[in-house]
Amino acid sequence: MPREIITLQLGQCGNQIGMEFWKQLCMEHGISPEGILEDYATEGTDRKDVFFYQADDEHYIPRAVLLDLEPRVINTILNSPYANLYNPENIYMSTHGGGAGNNWASGYAQGEKVQEEVFDIIDREADGSDSLEGFVICHSIAGGTGSGMGSYMVEKLNDRFPKKLIQTYSVFPNQDEISDVVVQPYNSLLTLKRLTQNADCVVVLDNTALNRIAVDRLHIQNPSFSQINSLVSTIMSTSTTTLRYPGYMNNDLIGLIASLIPTPRLHFLMTGYTPLTTDQKAASVRKTTVLDVMRRLLQPKNMMVSTDRIRHINHCFISILNIIQGEVDPTQVHKSLQRIRERKLAQFIPWGPASIQVALSRKSPYVQSAHRVSGLMLANHTSISSLFERCLKQYDKLRKREAFLEQFRKENMFKENLDELDNSREVVQQLVDEYHAATRPDYISWGAQEAAEGRS
Amino acid sequence: MSKVDMKSPAGLLHSLVCRITEKKEDDVSPHFQYALRVLGSHFTPSVESDEFQLAERIKRKLVKQRREGDAARFAELHRKLQSNNVVKNRWAILYLLYNLSHGPDRPGIKITAGEALFGQGLPTDATSTPFYHVPGMPGPLRTPMPPGGDTTGSSGISSIHTADRSDPTPTPQSFPASYGPTPGITPAQAAAQRQALGNRLALSLSSRQQPHLGNGDMSVATVPSGRGTASLSLRPGADNTSFELSEAALLRDVLFVFQGINGKIIKMSSTADRFVIDRKVGVPQAWRDLLGKLSELGWLHNKIRKFVDSKISDRALGLVGQSFCAALQHELTEYYRLVAVLDAQVQQDQDLGVSVGSGGGLTLRRLVVWSYEPLQRLKTLACLVDSCKGKKGGALASVVHSYMQTGDPSLRSLVKHTLNVVSQPIWEIMEQWIYEGDLEDNYQEYFVASDPTVKEDRLWHDKYSLRKSMIPAFITREQADKILLIGKTINFIRQVCRDRSPLKTKAVVKTGEAEEEGDLFTRDVDGSLQQVIDTAYRETSRILLDILHTKYKFMDHLKAMRRYLLLGQGDFIRHLMDLLEPDLNKPASTLYLHNLTGILETAIRATNAQFDDPDILKRIDVRLLEVSPGDCGWDVFSLDYHVDGPINTVFTPETKIQYLRVFNFLWRAKRMEYTLTEIWKDQMTIHKLLLKTVPELASLLHRCHILSSEMVHFINQMQYYITFEVLECSWDELWKKVKESPDLDHVIASHQVFLDAIIQHCLLDDESRELLTQLRTIFDLIIKFQSAENTMYKKAEEEMNLRLRFLRRIQENTEKGKWGVTELDEEEEKTRMEEFRDKFLSKTTSQLRVISQSYQDMVQNFLLMLNEHTDASLRFLSFRLDFNGHYHQREPKLNRSLSVSYARTRRRSGKDP
């Protein structure tokens, strides 16, 4: 089966959201937790092969590689009903089981150590697919394994499979609460560098925004991980529906993201989803039409990235893709677009053509939804840079005090100097600059200035 | 009451009372007393004693009671009385009788009773009603009605008589029997007259019998012969015997003439084309006139006879024509019967020696009256014959139908009957056609024509057609269309769908109607035919659609068309492109169909297409279009979908060509999408690789990215437009329409609408040719850009590798403890880098700028053209392509024309944009 996607889930967070993701996919494709196709789902026109492959005995096995440096989360998975879903050979847990201690450097170093074993798994999976489209990596950027080992994996995958796409679902830490991981800014910065340089597309899952949404929009006072994760899994599964339910367009990952990402580095996407409910029973009384959905998707409160409003920069959309599911009258799409344009609900880049792309996708017949129409927005918006700026600011604060660097100095990469940190900061700063530049009409010649600067 | 002197007025009164009350003498004393009291009261009627007036009133009353015969009889008797002078006080008697007839006690009493009373002094035999049956009277002579005429409902005098008895007869205001021999018949009186005719005939015949039965009393003969009074006003006296013979001879002649045979003195003149009376024979002018009138009948008869005789053996006339002849023949037979009756009477008159003048037999005048009805009928028939000459089949029926537009009910019913007979073959063919689909129309009379040369695959479209001239006027065009469709559907089911299962249409129609068959078709213009057609149409169409949907999986094929020829199965198309790309990049002439078919197989097996019905999958095929020089594989490759059997009727070769055109367009657009994702992918990977070692490329690459993102946007929006505004919307509509379609024609039509809409909106129609050319140029430019970029990448990669080697050498040398680089090496490296930078970079940059510039110009041009296009839906495309107004800002012209076109649309649609 062509255009397969291999999913790597790293670390505590990555495995948790990964597990939710697979649960969701199983439900949508009518696959039981054991990987057996349910009786009611045998006559599907859905494409299961993108994310699953079929074992000799009709079992559907996810193309997933589970990696962690400590056994806790993976053990939870292995004790869940979904234990038999995964290929046990695809699960890698560090033998010492000590984890990365929330230290990027440690995670990175351990990743390097175990790379051979891990790449055995990945190579096997890659060989098992007809024409691999790319990798999807689930991780968080703040912890140790997800960020450190994740960074290593991204780099390595890029070397090994230079022609394959790397898409990541990266969970950004919650800024609203004080993290117990003190080195979080370092971890984030170092991971961001890899995401900028080595990933092709990063779907930003901002815990800050997710928590806010849970509290404000879903009225959950203290949202649990699983509640947040179900939001994440919804986003992940919806963003892949066009791959799993093929239609006229957007049937492969590359087609999906190529239109969203105009220049290689501006590949950080934010998401929005509406209508938002974690509990399917809490049916909303609102009527949902395509226009409603598309309009709501443009509202910042539905965005799953918390961005600060910055007055002096006209942040704007570089691109938008709305994936609409449900009973949609295709004739409504045009009307909705017209309305949005008339009302100027969305601000677009001044340096090139841009518009809202709409993909209508089929919905899984096996999952009942309380809503007639639901929509996911994948958007490339320049204001995402504020997230990186925040990250830089925190890093700078920490770095100024040279705080908590001992942990890092233990590892080879930082033994001699902290150039890597400085370099990362530079890369992230450049990214922020480029996003800022993209709000201006002269972005077309942005590289030229840089090159000129570089030469002079 | 025996003591009462029977001769005295009291005695008479008593017996009168007895008679009236129909009671025994002893029981009537109260009535007698009452009568005496009334008589004794000396009351006199307040009316003037005008005998004439009163007689008229009585007659009117009789007529009102629909007893015209009696009225006539009364008139006769009254007249006789007047001339006889037997009764003096006639008015008083009449007045009494008149009042008695509607006395309060006896509302039911008939004037005949009065007549009987009046004729008390006359022999009782004569008091019988005209229909008084005399025992022993010979049956056939008693009535002119044809045997069984009532039940068969056939044409002829009797049938009309029967038919009209049920009609509400308008009340004639007067019955001018006593005024003239040939009463001017107004339409209102026609019915009464017709009935009267029958009665009269019967009367006259029975009256002829009466002399034998009667007691020889003079008055016996006079009573019935009163019917013949007409002759009295003509002739001065009954004893004028000089004309007597000649009238009888004339009658005989006339009867010959009635049959179209030359008589002794009345002969057919071929020059005048009419019957003329020998001038030499002394016939009074009045009779000549009458004879002229009567001979018209003969002329008409001849005309009809000639037609019937000439056509009855003419097979080319067809069944309808034959029916027409049969109808005429039948009418003629009826007519002959009348002639025979008349002849018999003339014969009898002669045998008995009854003088014409005596009033018992036929006279010319009577003949004129009696032949009035047949004359009208023959006239109408002759008209029909004239109009129907050279016509056949449905056309003939139409002509007959046009004669239905007459106000005269008798003629109307004649025509209606003829029409029924004439249209019978049509109904039969139709029945065969709508229930069985058989077309037994050997004479091309039916309005459905079949072309036997048409093959099965075109059966639906070409085999059957309407013969417009043969559509009977009582069948509307819509009905005819539906009838055509019904039979066509049945034939389609039988021949193309090869479904031999019996159709239950007939049963359905029958149960829906609960009427016997005969009824269905004799009613021609009313709703029942419509109902039959509708039911049969619904039923057969339903069966056909069922067969198409279940046995032939029409919907599945439709979906397959969409999935494969309209690229709906995205993953399959994508994979197919992946696999085909190396082949299609080669020149078209080097392609081998079998290779491509193999690739197609692989693509099907590898994608979700594999889950499709194997029957559908085996129909998918590769087709190579005609190769023109310079074409590459992309230009000529096409998918094909084989259809056969009934489905072919929807997916005709013409629509297949349309599908292929659409496929070609979509395939090109898809290729652009494909190419651009390839470009994008290369950019992403190479960007990561190159920039590390060749940073000076950054600006160039950035430009490439910007340009390609612009292209991606263009193509993607184009594709979204195709998806939503073209394919999805049209498909939605098609799906809805197909589901609702009542018959195959609707399905075909909506499918055609679907294809036409796609063709139009995909810029494939003639109007959009320029746009399409412009679009192709844009596509070509994208390909050009790709190759330029690839060349650039190759060169850049070379450079990168050289630099890396140089660096490696430095590293190696350093490791060996030597100088990293020699001056020479460094110099070499530097010049090469400068060359790369100055020559290659600047060259590529300018090349790229050219491409970029021309691309933008073209897109702007394209947008301008879109805005000027008449098809409003194409503005959706321009709207999408320039959603954020990017091109607007760059091209002031676009701004202007766009606002103009917006204004235009606003004005046209009359609402806010």
TrEMBL record, chain A:
SUPFAM superfamilies: Tubulin C-terminal domain-like, Tubulin nucleotide-binding domain-like
Tubulin/FtsZ GTPase domain sequence ranges: 48-247
Family to which this protein belongs: Belongs to the tubulin family.
Domain of life (superkingdom): Eukaryota
Entry protein name: Tubulin gamma chain
GO BP annotations listed: cytoplasmic microtubule organization; microtubule nucleation
Function noted in UniProt: Tubulin is the major constituent of microtubules, protein filaments consisting of alpha- and beta-tubulin heterodimers. Gamma-tubulin is a key component of the gamma-tubulin ring complex (gTuRC) which mediates microtubule nucleation. The gTuRC regulates the minus-end nucleation of alpha-beta tubulin heterodimers that grow into microtubule protafilaments, a critical step in centrosome duplication and spindle formation.
Example GO molecular function: GTP binding
Compartments (UniProt record): Cytoplasm, Cytoskeleton, Microtubule organizing center
Stored CDD domains: gamma_tubulin
An annotated GO cellular component: gamma-tubulin complex
Keywords (A to Z) from UniProt: Cytoplasm, Cytoskeleton, GTP-binding, Microtubule, Nucleotide-binding
Residues covered by the Tubulin/FtsZ 2-layer sandwich domain: 249-393
KW Nucleotide-binding (keyword) present: yes
InterPro entries: Gamma_tubulin, Tub_FtsZ_C, Tubulin, Tubulin/FtsZ-like_C, Tubulin/FtsZ_2-layer-sand-dom, Tubulin/FtsZ_GTPase_sf, Tubulin_C, Tubulin_CS
